Amino acid sequence: MRLSFGQELRMVQKQVLAPRMIQSMEILQLPILALQERIEQEIQENPTLELADEDPDLPEEENLEAENPNAPTSEEKELVVDETKNNEEDFERLLNMNEEFPDHFEDRSRPSADRIDEESSRKHDTMANMVDRPESLQDYLHNQLSWFDLDPEVRQLADRIIYNLDHNGYLTGRLEDLLEPDAPPQRLTLAQRALSVVQRLDPPGVGARDERECLLLQLTPGMHCYEELRTLITNHLEDLAHNRLPVIARKTGLTMEQIHEAKEELKKLNPWPGAVFANAFVPTVTPDVTVEQDENGKYKIKVEDERTPQLFISQYYRKLLSSDEVTPETKEYIKKKINAAQWLIESIEQRRGTLSRVAQAIVDHQIAFLNNGPEAIEPLKMQQIADKVKVHVTTVSRAVDDKWIQTARGIFPLKRFFVGGTVSADGEEVAWDAVRLKLQEIVDHEDKQKPLSDDDLVKELGKAGLTVARRTVTKYRKAMNIPSSRQRRDWLKHDGPPAAE
Questions:
Q1: Positive or negative: CA dihedral 82, 88, 89, 90
Q2: How far is CA 79 from the centre of its chain?
Q3: pTM attached to this predicted model
Q4: With pLDDT > 90 as the criterion, what percentage of the chain qualifies?
């Protein structure tokens, strides 16, 4: 079947846009420090990219652009193109720039050997003076993941799971929450496969959803007391915690000697497989955006990219494109490199604009949080921000992924502002965070001689206008490490938790 010219043109455009879209998504997802590393790498690999440093030999007026890293330079403004244009039109424009601004870049010719040596020495000194960062749990797991021959989609989901593990190596949220909204059922199947891969990594037990699963993952057939351990972990962890060994013996048929022997083997397992990495490395958080109040009391977002290198395309290589002394093969190589440089510059600028709009929309929704604290956080879904900013919800997800915001109340991950909720007695939506805070407050002020059961906690929350199911209270109580009413009463008798054996 022969395609029409229009169909062929659309296919060509789609092929041209695909790499741009992929790179834009990758750049958008990078936090500020990773973006800086990416730019450094691109500069080393692409000779047509140069840093737009302030030149002390230029007049003061011409240095104004360098003083404001956020302001696009004149040559960058010329690089903003309609994505529907093909590459030949892009390079036609680049060639025209040489004719329109013949003297503008004269002092930015090809770097001299001395400048290259100076820049290389500067980078080497900077790297030599950096403190070695201990390997994190995520780094350790990610390196192991490279040993597996996985489908790209499964590998992507495995990476996502790894970077959502807590400091103990647990996956605390639901697997479904890591997927895109309205993801098809087969996407969850792939996520389950990815989780299975992560749970096979070292240290044993990593990627578990709870303590029981963590301990079961550490069992291997053939180990001493394997069957007994599997039985105890699966059905009798709470009995072991309360030293109800006769109950275990009666229910399992195991002898007391077998139970004691298995209990000793259980002590060799690690319920916190990621803790050793958490103790070795506490990451420094660098905010990607800052929120400040203006003179009218309105909260305004500022993208923190002052330290992000500002890029431009080398004038030396621009001129080579119109030189008759350069072979067609060399020109084609330069075109590809300039094209890649142009895409990178546009992707960085697009990242800045998208992050700014998404963060501003989040702040506009969470004004009560900024004014009154975490207990005033409002329920918020990513789809709401996507609708407001007029982008796809996956764009919002990438924009907030691993990004931090500096506020007057501290530094928070942008994902912190997306929370589900329930409906209060008066019909208003209340964030689950507010429910948890209220739950903690009720437990803190309960009669210690008569601790409240989960049913009692449901009633107390109801008195505060919060309608919550009992199973939800139990789930939150456990997640917040609040013991059961019986345990709290026993702890009171012993002046605190029983000593570890």
A1: positive
A2: 30
A3: 0.49
A4: 14
